């Protein structure tokens, strides 16, 4: 009745450290997941011979053949809808939405089925599937190529939403997402695809549902994810000169939210700011600010700041620089706090 | 059910793709495309006479044993449907979309499906689920309001009854494609309404199935209304089966009140799919005799005489006339079938009159494979509320009143 | 080039006060708007002879004819997408999505075009159109009939999102939405369709973008909208016995948010809670809590509470009572605050 | 442009709806449905000879003046396209999707549209915009990254170039329906790609147009690829025009490299639409010679020889051969046209080499009709930042570096 894992292989031995981009790490994760479990199939627009518009699936079709990875017709609801059926059968489909904004035609399938199938069936029909979404902006893309869609998914109970910020996490979290019994919205910050790290594969970092303190500090906690982790780290570097010690938390998992790690950091520093590219109003930062405040109100010396894009549609390439949160803007925002109240 | 089917005679020759990139302009292949017959394929006419000639579309009338079995299933389905509508009027269900008058379409199609195959139904198709062996209480749990789905999908190879229109057609395509990748010779059959064919998802399902050549059978139950909206506001196509042409897929326009035709055409499509021939689109032209659901008022949008017109085309009576004229429905069999139908009705009454016990704390148990900490906190709060309510003797109903 | 208003008529004289349901008030608003401006056209699923599944368009087709109000094919992206074209021509389409969950197929048209057209064209191509969405639950509906979709729309810059809670506002705000130069997502709480009020039509209440204090109080501000305004008012009534004086603000406009009215109330009471049916995580209440806190941190005696549905898919009819915020639950939540810290 | 067109001879007789609720089963109307010709309609063959007989689909070759005008427009379009691709390689544009090789499809279709009509293009259709009289700088503002749309849509009756696939087709249907409600005899023409036909929105647009009988013309530019995905993975239909059958709408499969055929068929469809005959679907079979955009690498998914094959079917050369053989392209005219094309290229270079001044504060000005208080606060913050940067002499580029 369902697909069985006929071809499970042991993990390959760890490779020698090599410099990999995030796109390369994702490619390796797909390759290793497909080798380890033949229920894993990959499809979407241009993922075959082209290897994806960001080359994340580069070379996979020549290794695994067209029955494991193929180009589908151009229809996102069709891609997600058929992936649901494939997961019902027992496969583990990994499908690609070409850009955030092009996942919107799949919205109904995502919200009305992907998110709800397990609950609807009292757990009898789980949907182990991954929807990969190259996300966010800062790549000079024309309209519709730089949206941040995470708030739509995180507002939907039943979806697990994660976003790596670096190659090691990209590899590890994608493997974990594919192994998950639950559907995962796997968001890949486009502007970080070419970020490099030296990695030994297969690497496994912290569990996918945990936030990680990526830089310790004493005065303020910056909560960042995906593309803004770098922004936060740069701000932290620059702040040293100003005598400010910044702790940076990479949220990694947007839903669920790792309250434990975040609250521990915030209680230590007593100040927090969340940074994201998306517009502020109704953005994911609202949830972060609200729950950090709920859980740590009496430890907070100041309101949780939201340092985000403006409340406007994502701008054209020549204007995006004015929209996106920069390290300067982070530091300027921190400076607005009434520090003496701490 | 041993079945003789008409596969091979039907006009469902392969429709190869004529495009392979660069060479299209030089292609001069024979044109094998064809339009579905505009007159619905029919094997039994309304008087219960066997139809001959081109109107059959080359399909053979199923044998008497098969027809008797189809008759039995339709009678049981009808009795069940009438019973559930009555229970709904009595307030035992939150809602019920009846398939009264559509039994030939529902039962003809679903009876052609094997137990190993998968079925992707809509809210309208409860009687098909019954025929597939699902217990009345399990079918109706969702309409009673107990939980969103009440039966084991894997055990019955039957997906939950989809409410978002046409969405389930894509699931059927995906599942059958997966099976094909595994060389598992099963077929997925999905039903959708005439209205649902207007949704983008119907288009994407037809197209994915055709391009991937999945073993999928699409049954469009054209009951001529989408709630209040008549077919003429839904499509300008001569038949809904015409849509198949645009996907390079065979399409059949069938008399949906002729269970013999629905069965024969569906069976042929299933066998075609199973043997690697790809998907088929079948339109069954029928009529919804009841309201859309109990909360609908059809007098606002259609004339009583139209309903009367279609009542005179009753699918069960049609087959009965044939069986009687062939001497294939002896009185004792008819009685036995009627009794079986009454038994199903009685079982349904019984299970729907009893209250199901539902634990509110289960609300938190199936959202994710592994419980989230924050959700467990919320579960704890509800557990405390319930404990307090139990201690103070107050009932959940107090809750309900306040919530409304 | 564009449709001209050829048939503008004076507003009808105010009628004698009559008892109207919210559905009736909405019907009257559509009727009066169609009479006042023949650019107003209404279409969607079952809005014609049936008068809509909630009877909001009852009788309008027989008055205005099929060129002004008609049943469209069953396809929500088609409905919203064609409405965009009609608005581009100069009409003022008012389209209906039958339930929140059935607006999801229109998500791409809503987010990628309705929200963005004015900005994309530097204001040269405004889209005056209204998308009516019967919203939220508590009507015993089977799956997909009780979703709360407001967080999806409010997270989208470019959309105006409003939700009336009573018949007078329903009339007034729908008239204003139709008159607006901008696209408006007009959300109608299904459970309030049959709520009655005595009204003189045409009534005009506070501007659509303003929140309104619907009950004055001293100790805490409840921020509610749509169906939860009644919940808040009932909680306020019940709280009197406990010696608690509750102020209730009906937000009315979800986007934009009326910071002025809300902050004034919160600064007075120093405590605020937001109530909604939708799940808490990533829900609209997160934005409310975050911005109220940002703007009033040093006036708050306690964190802004969120009293909401659980973080689960909307339950089946027999279980919804356990999911929805009730007056009891509101009072219980208020009791958890550390009142002595005020 | 005075035009003799072939309307009336084409096989586009009305396709009435055969459904009107209750009576469908008894309908016995003549079957007027027909399949689009599988061989593309062609008025000029690749050698530049006029085609005769059934291959023309009953359409007449436009007169020499019209053909010369189409030639001129194609030459200018080609020169513009090549220029913009070059500028893109030089980094002057963020991206550019070239229509090289598709000029017959683009120009044939758009030239059939009157100034009073509306056009709903995609990102691919810049050359059609040029033909429609929009300035190069205004067309390219969005691809340069200045703003999402650079021209006045109302002035040119041309919607912005849609990126989300097939979405614009619904806008075209809505606008033309509104016009029809106003008895305004205009037509909306929209272009979409072969890949875009797979999207649900394409289906919904075709269906709404057919059911509402809107004056809409759908041009499917079948350039045989959707980025890297060939047509065979997009559809199994014999032709994309076949899709029209499923909507009860006329469909034409046209040689998209024959500008005469594209013009004649589109013109007939426009006139049909204008006179109340409803929508038409036209597939132009052509080929994308360039990469999808400058960031694409087509060597990964197609063979150089396929591209060569199609280069030998160049649409401009084809018409040129015909005009020359007819003596309708004197050397001085050819020179004049080439000069005009060079002038457009020069203008384009000039405008694209100059930097546009863009005020970042305009980001806040057009989101809503009336500014929101919270947005004005944000505007104020950016204004302060800019003022500070100006005062400290730092450039916005510093910003950009940090943001990336
Ligand atoms: C996406 C979506 N839009 C709207 C609805 C509301 N709705 C439920 S049934 C129905 C009519 C469906 O008609 P049809 O497809 O002909 O099926 P029938 O009910 O006649 O069996 C509508 C509009 C829905 N369930 N899903
Ligand atoms: C809804 C949507 N999904 C995906 C994309 C990304 N995308 C841009 S162009 C393209 C291929 C389109 O192919 P086709 O429709 O044939 O047009 P062509 O580019 O060949 O002119 C894709 C997948 C998009 N723009 N919109
Ligand atoms: Mg129907
Ligand atoms: Mg293409």
Automatic annotation (TrEMBL), chains A, C:
User: Is Oxidoreductase one of the keywords?
Assistant: yes
- Does the record carry Oxidoreductase as a key word? yes
Q: Name one Pfam family in it.
A: Transketolase_C
Its Enzyme Commission number?
A: 1.2.4.4
Provide the cofactor list for this protein.
Answer: thiamine diphosphate
Cited InterPro entries: THDP-binding, Transketo_C/PFOR_II, Transketolase-like_Pyr-bd, Transketolase_C
Return the PANTHER family for the record: 2-OXOISOVALERATE DEHYDROGENASE SUBUNIT BETA, MITOCHONDRIAL, 2-OXOISOVALERATE DEHYDROGENASE SUBUNIT BETA-RELATED
Name the chain's protein.
3-methyl-2-oxobutanoate dehydrogenase (2-methylpropanoyl-transferring)
What is the taxonomic lineage of the source species? Bacteria, Bacillati, Actinomycetota, Actinomycetes, Micrococcales
